[in-house]
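debug: dumping io for the single-chain case to check the tokenizer round-trip. Nothing else runs in this session.
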Amino acid sequence: DYDRLISKTEMTIHSRLVALQNKLVNLQ
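debug: decoded output
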């Protein structure tokens, strides 16, 4: 299913962004 693939990719990208933000917050 194409839509499912898109949403899965968005979730992966979102989780990576959250992880990056958490690292930046920890550095401050």
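debug: round-trip ok. The chain has one domain: 1-28.
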